[in-house]
Batch of 3 targets.
Target 1
Amino acid sequence: MLVLEQINTPGIAQLSYLIGDSGAGTAAVIDPRPDCGIYLELAQRHGLSITHAIETHIHADFLSGSRALRARLGGNVTVCVSGEEDPDYGDEVKRLRDGDRLTFGDVTLTARHTPGHTPEHLAFEAADGEDVDAPWGVFSGDSLFVGSLGRPDLLGEEETEELAKKLFRTMRDYFRNLDDGVLVYPGHGTGSACGADIGDRPVTTIGREKRENDALNIDDEDAFLEFVKEGAPPVPAHYPRLKKANLQPYDLAHEPTCPPLSVDAFQQRSEADDVQLLDTRDMLAFGGGHIPGSINIGDRDELSVWAGDMLDPDRPLLLVAYDDRQIPELVTLIHRVGFTDFAGYLAGGMTAWNGDGLPLATVRELSVNELNERRGDVQVLDVRNDGEWNSGRVPEATHFYVGEMRDGDLPDLDKQCPVACYCGSGYRASIAASLLKRGGFADVANVPGSWGAWRAQELPVEGGD
């Protein structure tokens, strides 16, 4: 009997799959994440042995888990990667090419070369037994998403046009020719930066995508190239780094640990030039008092994305949390985007720090109504991306995308005059505010609710429709 489980990794909106046959007792995991215990639990629940870990392509947005899964299972897993375009994985792997098949009892997976998002990308058709000419499903990886498609610009500008042309042919000559009833199991859901405006359904059908997804209905190559340029969010800084990391052999010794540090030890370690201090409390707690020099990325699912985008993987991390019990989950979220070096966490959190009377920095909060009243004497900083900015903004605001602050670049504003940061909800604004504070701005405020609250209060808007 078919076993099929979809695993959604929140924050990075990554979708992986366990597929197998309970009669044969064998299964594969498609595009596993590095914290792979969930696959072992699911396999045990269904009475399955995981024999294969399959990568649809070289991932850019998370640390691939295939070789971690193999290590967890004592090496008794075949790691399958694309052999198309001959990428150098530098490890013992099984290279699959277009038309190659893997069998798990009465389930057959057939590799199909679907380049465009990356040159080597494979999709996998799923069929019953030997009926391979009538697949009932396709694991599309990062080529076709719900209402969207994979972006072709992650390998740099010099390769974007050629990849976009390959993506056009993949949509036109492969996906559009599948039967309407074929189920599509994508590699990402809504919220991922691997595609523009990905829909929120976990599974779709070829027929539905033909009706609703413009990417499958463009017959002219030039029109398609213009189409894929529109709407894609900025490329996160950690994507090129993870591309390289996912080609390297996996070492269990690099699995991260984060030791508790006393207040004295934490303070001493935080004063070293090589570390970076991450405060994971929410914006209100951070604003009320934090360790000077901290960057604030709140403990929510999107912590993975923003840690990957804003932090330096070559510098050890010191963590501050609400509660020491959150530390294992925080480490997991950060490890998913390739961080392994944790210098430690503040045992007892800010309660312990405050108990010793140590220095604090603050970031004020301004409500949207207060910000509107003070627009004349406060520098207003919009840290959203270009598309959000162009769709409407606070009048007289300065625009500087938060992602551009990662390397110490800060907006050209007066450091001695008050500045208030806003984004869509306040989450990114708090990241930006913490960086401004660390960068020497004397009076920094965050705007809780930010643009969403501004519109809810029907305050003045500049630009947009």
Target 2
Amino acid sequence: MTRPPTRHPAGRAPLARSGAALAVVLLLAAGCADPRGGSLGPAPTAASPVATAPTGPTPPPTPAGTGPPPAPPATSTAPPSTGATPRPQNLTIELWYVRDGRITPTRRTRPATPATSRLALTELAAGPTTAEAATGMTTLLPAGVEVTRIADGVATLPPLPAASATSRRLREAQVVYTLTQFPTVRRVRFGTGDPVNRADYADLLPPIVVTSPVVGQRVTSPVTVTGTADVFEATVNVRILDAAGRELATTFTTATCGTGCRGDYRVGVRYRLTREQRGTVEVYEVSPADGSRTKLVAVPVTLAATGR
């Protein structure tokens, strides 16, 4: 007796075969992926600006039945959302250069790319801008250095070109501090050595690090000044100077740790200025011995006018 052909629900067999084929394609693609994993994830300084509604006083509620009739619901003509988060067009990364035998940060905003590790190291090797170089910044990292693998939070690079012991550690510190800003990198391995992290190069930080503002930035009042410091009694002093070097404002704050340990600090400084001009943000320690400004970091900026 001839068995009747098995009938599938409409569309079931073709869809099953299509799903199996798609799974095979995805598995093959994963097996052929680049093991270097060039994407390090979003940089912490790369947050996209968010538009906010203007703020103002909240109007009192209208008693029931006394207000105008409610408006009909708006009809949206926008295409339906796909649920996917739009990729930012630009990426802001923190770069660590060398100044006076220590490492110091600045920032760059560049078109977004999946190969964030390559972008970061390329910008690091390219060196400082003219304005940054004028403050003494330089780079010791040669061109062509790339991450070869990222796995389990460790970014692996080939050994850096030969240099003196001091230059080698500064080069490595530049790379380690730049790459570990990304959430997917906690440590860095050079060649076959043991992985290292920021703590291994903490001695190459100056007493006061200013992470914001950066050289050449246009700032508005109040200026938010942030960074880390290891200073006497954790006291961090800030002042703003105009183009002629006149003091416009001064304040101080305390870091989360100090006098033998490094802590974070953040403070806002208000100033008044009738016209936009170049200026300087100074961050320093007041000497407990004679009251002079010591461990000073000067950041040239553009000061926006505030009006009268």
Target 3
Amino acid sequence: MKRNFLVILFIAGAILRSPCEAQNKAVPEQFKYKVDLKKEGTSAEKIAGLDSLLQSLVNQHKVSSVVGFIAKGGNVVYKKAFGWKDMENKVPATPDDYYILFSQTKAITTVAFMTLVEKGLVKIDDPVSTYFPEIPDKVITVVHDDGTYETRPVAKPMTFAHLMSHSSGLNAGLVGKMRRSEMQKRNAAATAGTSPPVGPGQRSGGAGNARYLKDDMIALAKYPLGFDPGSEYSYHVSTNMLAYMVELISGKPLRQYVKETVLEPLGMNDTDWYYEPAALSRFVKAYNAVDGKLEPASNMFSEGTVSKEQTYAEGALGLNGPIDDYAKFCQMLLNRGEFNGHRILKRETIDAMTKVNRLPESNAGGKGFRFGLGFELYNENKKPVPEVSNTAFAWGGLYGTAYIIDPENNLIALYYLNMPKHEDSYPLFLSKAYKLFRK
């Protein structure tokens, strides 16, 4: 009798535990590259159709190189590159090449900040002024011809959620115009008509000559806001301020903290802001499409990753790396916080970041544009192609890199170019990526 009772207890305990345990064990901890296409719901013929699309972009001189990555449930059904890493020297592109990620840096910075939230060091709705008293608390109302301006108090203080949703008001509206005008005048006076090099601060919306992100953000904080926090959307510089907050709260440089909490645990070993000089050969060269031809473009951003005495790492841009490195980050998000045997964030944290719109319904992003904490949230009113579900979230970078995480379809898809002005081919790729699994 006693034995039967113990058996019943064991079975009951297993039943109670199994839903949660199965849920936690269901997520893939590594990518599986050798897959049965039929079992994944696709075919070699459909894969060949995607090959043809990407090769046609190269053949038509619309892109110099392109690489795609698609995984369903952690099973990689597509990882291929087309075109040229170096056209002049006829070096073929490969999936392992490095790309300039630009704004794909933002999501990683945001995830790094959310690890501080989970440690109890900060809350997303805390006023930023609690940690950085210099943060602006006034909104600009008028800019006079002589450069002076008038302000009013903010309707509500800036929070970290405002930084992560690009609704902080930093460097926005009249403030952004005023600061750009000031920078142009300084550059003109300093260079006497020559074109100055673009420094990290100029890319970030900062002073243009700072050696550290801290210097830029302190300079930025001396200006008022362009609008009340939470009332509008103004892209970019908010994530740099968030990155500076990561440094203040963690007590570590941004690069160190991001590598320790996100990149290294996920096995993103080739993703970084800076590299040793030998790594320059890993980068795809940049080209522009001009009148149906491809012309060499500046490689200043890849070359800048190996210059000496690097000190400027910013949160809004600057990371680089191969496509499957960032795919690990995407799969972690699809897994709701876990990959490579490491839990980066809690499941509920990922949900809060990717399911809750943080913008007013009418905003500068356009009709239907929604943004969570670090990601655009696709919905019935706005998505890149019809096949994308309403649970998907995504972002991308200035040089043609893009990614999507779609929980409803258990899918991630990444698409990389290295062209500052490029044919908008991403929707074509994305539509075919989804149709791989449609009858």
